[in-house]
Amino acid sequence: MANVLIWSSLRSHTGGKANLQIEARTVRELLDRLAETYPGLKPQIQRGVSVSIDGVIFRDGWLETLKPESEVVLLPRMVGG
Amino acid sequence: MPLDNTESQTRKFKVIGTRPIRPDGIDKVTGRARFGADAVAPGMLIGRVLRSPHAHARIKSIDYSKAMKLAGVKAVVTKDDFPDKTDGDAALYDVLYNVMAREKALYEGHAVAAVAATSAAIAKQALKLIKVDYEVLPHVTDVDEAMKPNAPVLHSKIFTDGVEPKPKKASNVVRRYEFGHGDVDAGFKRADIVIERHFRTEATHQGYIEPHACLANVGPDGQGELWVCTQGHFMVRDTCARLLGMDITKLRVTASEIGGGFGGKTTVFIEPVALALSRKANRPVKVVMSREEVFKATGPTSSSSIDVKIGCTKDGRIVAGDATLRYQGGAFPGSPVEFGAMTAFAQYDLENVRAVGYDVVANRPKQAAYRAPGAPMANFAVESVIEEMAHKVGMEPIDFRIKNAAREGTHSSYGPVYGPIGLLATLQKAREHPHFRAPLGKNQGRGMACGFWFNFGGQSCVTLNVGVDGTVGLVTGSPDIGGSRASMCLMAAEELGIPYDKVRSVVADTGSLGYNDVTDGSRTTFATGMACILAARDAIKKLCARAAQIWGIPEDAVVWENGHARPAGANAGNFEPMSLKEIAAQAPSTGGPIAGHHEYSADGAGVSFATHICDSEVDPETGFTKILRYTVLQDAGKAIHPSYVEGQFQGGAVQGIGWALNEEYIYGKDGRLQNAGFLDYRIPVCSDLPMIDTVILEIPNPGHPYGVRGVGETSIVPPLAAVANSVSAAVGVRMTETPISPPKLLKALESLGGMKKAAE
Amino acid sequence: MSAVTVNAKINGDPVEFVCEPDETLLDVLRNRLGMTGAKEGCSTGDCGACSVTIDGRLTCSCLVLGAEVEGLNIGTIEGMANGEKLHPLQKKFLEHAALQCGVCTPGFLVAAKSLLDHNPKPTETEVRFALAGNLCRCTGYDKIVRAVMDAAAEMRRA
Prior knowledge:
The structure holds 3 protein chains of 3 kinds. Chain A is α+β, with helices and mostly antiparallel strands.
């Protein structure tokens, strides 16, 4: 069970909830479950997201494992120049 | 890949941290190095692009029959040669539409057709013979104007996302973002001092000296080659292959030396066009952009309109920060406003913070990344207010920042809780720096700012080949935009224990390696560097195994030390250590070539914080601002080649200085760019600047074996505010718009003078 | 328009080329003679990446026609090193890491050499103003100026 923080403007798709409990052991599972449970999040997830796990930002690490005590934060997909 | 065990904090590096000559250096100082426009092919045609003269127009028809009849013209392409193969990928469809206009021309300079001919002169003539029937539409170029309800709408399918209720009318507002935590309204109620200001920044261009250029060669069997200056040739390959309906492996892309990118060469503009022309003409086609085309039809930054409100208590503790950012990203969605919103307050430890961002489209070229995309504008706004607030509270700006700085355990404004970060370290180092004690005279002032950028890892693939003479070939796929080849060689040499000049690094074509992400996001020394280290370790395992075979002892009885394989202990056997050169010499007859590999997607890139201090002098008669002194203090984690780290600090700072003082896109009422050249788009020149002092901090990034953090982008984030703050200190006028060019500053000084006179 | 035949010298070597009347010297160097050291950054004389010398005078080759150099001696980056022996400026640029992408480097070297040929002991300000016609976007100019000052000092010692 992972604890995920989503950013403020996405909360209209989760009934206003900022912190979500999602059953997931990897980032991929997390994103799939999020899209299933809250279909309003699907477009943003498809456009691209990054995931911060305990302060380390993962841009493509879908197989990263999540521990129940991990702090997981959804972020827009990182870009650079 | 974690930091080497605790010893690495005290690991004595042999070559890391030294300043050897870069391996491609001689070619670059003798003119031998070959850049995008330096390639030729037998039978080559010259390609030129026809561009819309209108900022917004429906394209009713294109008739190029006359152009085709001109002797020497071999092919013409329009959108009809680019059938939509994007398969529902909206972002890729926008790239396609940007590369070649479809129903509408969405900005002045938008490509509408292209020609390949036997000479540049004939190609130019042919463009004039292409008849385009435009229905000119009203246009909008300003971000706030584009958001108004009666603004001309660019895309009929954009209905603002992220607002409730969902709009029924199409608009130019693509999306609303919001980040933050706490309760800003409650926070402001507790504030003793509240400052609220409005800021505007105009679009700027990365300004790389080398225009985009490529040479495409597609054969009748549909296999193609492309020579191109780019930050990511694998990205070019995959994007072009998709757009043209080619298998990825049928297109081989070679990255030329690149004359600057800074984010502006992380996408495609002319490349699919050159390939399409070559395919149609069945001959090689070279396309080189003019400087005017670069300004009008590549990817400048967004322009922005930003409101910032900050409140603090009278003892200098910030209690609330609130920002609304509006960015127009050109004619297609995707301005980096969310990164502006995320980074705006990221340097501070705030209980109550909110940052709202609006992504807006307008009739301008589609924006592309420019170092830390979205961050400089947001930092300009927030750090200006912070400085003003510090003065109002009666604290030194540096102390005000130290008091409120984000640190380990701070809930960041964009979501995660910070682990160990280097912000306080750069601030405290800055505080001790002699720059703060330099004397200031009349009309001279000092300002500062601090900022950061995320950096990321991404995909890298490296092969390390051991030559039979004991020299090592390091094959990477990351275009070298800043001298990274030297750092790659240093890391491989360090691991192998051989001299730096025995390692040669090349940037290989797409046929030679697995995928490599674009050289951006400050990722190369971190991710490709780490891959070099790991490829070297892989090669070392194989070298040890080879030595073990030669000695007839088990593999795990051999260790690598100082460039030699040696038995692990006395009972492993009494063999003289074998050097890399000795093992390599025997390779052909002991099992064949020895090579190490590493391919992965790296993560764990650390953020890089910086503090900038700027002294400037304003001439009150002309409004001209001269930079007197500039210091960059930035955390590099571990500086592999300190000269190139300093180079990143200095280059980014000067780009920021240009953005602050002179650079802007100037549009006429007709929606056309007025200053599409280096004369009137004024980037800093040598005589504008002093030496740029640099201090490299090294707080190791635990995600890299040597502690490397990406450094390339952060340095463009603080300069806008640092310069604006120094101007404010110099002449007492707070400039809230960039650029702070002489006419604008003079006008502000005159009204200040007028106000002072009126007050007397 | 009919083509023009031009006889000139490049880095001291006699050369004969044919060009259109409206071709610039930069076009001729790059496209006719295969000398791609001079770069086209703007074609309006603003960036200096195409810098050459014409009879010792520093010039933007994008602002000169190929047809105009009849009988003149063009100095390009390709003529700066003496075989394997680099010019002190070239050496110092490498030592000081005065280049990142390197596209402006040929122009800077030609311009810096021109400066030192006329003024062997320039101050930092004189260096900065002499090089103000060459744009660099990567380095912020700091290391370029250091390299030129250092090369000047070395050349005075020689």
